[in-house]
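Final report, closing paragraph on structural work. Over the funding period we assembled a curated collection of sequence-structure pairs, and we close with a single example.
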Amino acid sequence: MARAASRNTAARSGHSTVDPEEIARFTALAEAWWDPDGEFRPLHRLNPTRIAFIRDRVAAHHRRDPLKARPLRGLTLLDVGCGGGLLSEPMARLGARVTGIDAAEKSIHIARAHAEQSGLSIDYRHATAEALAQDIIPGGGGFDVVLNMEVVEHVANLDTFLAATSALVKPGGAMVVATLNRTAKAFALAVVGAEYVLGWLPRGTHDWRKFVRPSELAAGLRPHGGEIREFTGVAYNPITDKWGLSPDLSVNYMAFAVTGKGK
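Its predicted structure, as stored:
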């Protein structure tokens, strides 16, 4: 009953998780989503590591071989804050039935056009998580997998956002989160280093005060039936110019959580 109550509360709260300044910032950059050398270059470089983590953990959760063709075949997947579709498209190629939502309408237009050009069927919607929850919950629906990748550090209210996205996961489903830890090291590397020294990201992309500690993420999911099964760090190797998994959670990290019945 507590699970059902939390789902209904998330759907009916009416609180918006949208930060208008964040949406304006990403709207201004929307045309650059698919430029591997543009403002979203770090996400393009991160993508192989993110995709492999999602594929392997979700496949294992559903007792599938992650190395077989289309291991996510038939699973419903929601990509929250999908942007131009950098993760939505690979998930569709892995066999998932993908829905992508974003509060920046221009990004959704970019994502739709690119998916069409790529011959992929993806349900892109200009929507917020809390608005989608209002549509999904009354009908008893939900998704097998919800992705919150590089989005929780940009929302206006973390607790409300986690409540809404948790409500969108089917009982026994999974959520994958990628974000930044609120540490001095993260401020030095992800803000000062990436934005002001190396110029990997436009200045002002991140607000360090919105970074989320692993303990805060776990605490935010727990009231809604979410249990984190794994934390892993993500680190950049300047010698190989590649990203990979790491035991160090102090800057970038990812989490795999399961929700509700069937955990």
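The chain has one domain: 2-259. The two ends are 16 Å apart (CA to CA). We thank the funder for supporting this effort.
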